[in-house]
Design goal:
96 residues
């Protein structure tokens, strides 16, 4: 039978893969959403010269408000998948 300290250690060490994925997805999605809308509001002659290059990887993305929503969706999915993979790998390492 495990001691109370060992039970607590087992409960605390493991990560919830889905929750980590959702948190990372929201964080990455919000980052791109905010960056895009900051550039849209800032305006200028050449808005988001570097950020517009993301359209090569994210079809439909543009440096516009609608593009920021599309970019949020893409980055949410990437963050979700990355967080789930990181959580799974971490849990496998900790379990060993």
């Amino acid at each position: 039978m495990e001691t109370e300290e060992q039970q607590l250690e087992h409960a605390v060490v493991r990560l919830n893969e889905k929750l980590l994925g959702i948190a990372l997805g929201i964080l990455l999605g919000a980052g791109l959403f905010l960056a895009t809308n900051f550039l849209v509001l800032k305006g200028g002659s050449n808005v988001g010269a570097h950020l517009v290059l993301l359209a090569n990887f994210f079809p439909g993305y543009r440096v516009t408000f609608l593009g920021s929503l599309i970019g949020f969706c893409y980055m949410f999915v990437i963050g979700l998948l990355a967080g789930m993979v990181l959580g799974a790998v971490y849990n496998k390492i900790v379990k060993a």
